[in-house]
């Protein structure tokens, strides 16, 4: 379907930008985190495959770790990433696992 090919184009674009930024900036740079988070979110919306789900989980975990190290609790980028990760887990049918990042985000946003 046309939607799948549009997602393929966007996914490939994110992968290309991520590879270039990783090579030039390293994994802890905020520009890398931004693209990784976008790719993780996109993968979580695509037709689920074990590979996509695992990569989405890994990218969200890595982004969250960098943001926790760089920003104080409650920073908007950290809260947004936690909410996005919770949504991704919920879309994967992993509602119990989604509770932890959702609760963390809610506690920070108060």
Brief description of this entry?
It is built from five helices and no strands.
How would the blueprint of this fold be written?
Layout (H helix, E strand, L loop, with lengths): L1 H24 L4 H16 L4 H21 L5 H16 L3 H15 L1
Helix pairs in contact: 1-2, 2-3, 2-4, 3-4, 4-5
Largest sheet: none
Count of runs of 4 or more consecutive helical residues: 5
What is the radius of gyration computed over CA atoms, rounded to a whole number of angstroms? 14 Å
The proportion of residues forming helix, as a percent range, comes to over 70%
Shape: flat
Distance between the termini: 42 Å
Q: Tell me which oligomeric state these chains represent.
A: single chain
Spell the H/E element sequence. Answer: HHHHH
Low-pLDDT windows of residues: none
**Helix/sheet category:** mainly alpha
Number of strands: 0
Please tell me the overall pLDDT: 94
DSSP strand content:
under 5%
Could you explain the architecture of this structure?
The structure is a single chain. Helices cover 84% and strands 0% of the residues. The protein has helices spanning 2-25, 30-45, 50-70, 76-91, 95-109. The longest helix has 24 residues, at 2-25. The protein is flat, with a radius of gyration of 14 Å. The mean pLDDT is 94.
Q: What attributes does this structure have?
A:
110 residues, mainly alpha, 5 helices
């Amino acid at each position: 379907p046309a939607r799948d090919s549009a997602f393929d184009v966007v996914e490939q674009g994110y992968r290309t930008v991520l590879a270039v930024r990783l090579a030039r900036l390293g994994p802890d740079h905020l520009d890398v985190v931004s693209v990784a988070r976008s790719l993780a979110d996109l993968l979580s919306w695509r037709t689920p495959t074990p590979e996509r789900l695992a990569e989405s989980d890994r990218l969200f975990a890595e982004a969250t770790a960098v943001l926790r190290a760089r920003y104080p609790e409650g920073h908007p980028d950290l809260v947004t990433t936690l909410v996005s990760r919770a949504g991704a887990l919920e879309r994967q049918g992993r509602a119990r696992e989604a509770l932890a990042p959702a609760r963390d985000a809610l506690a920070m946003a108060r």
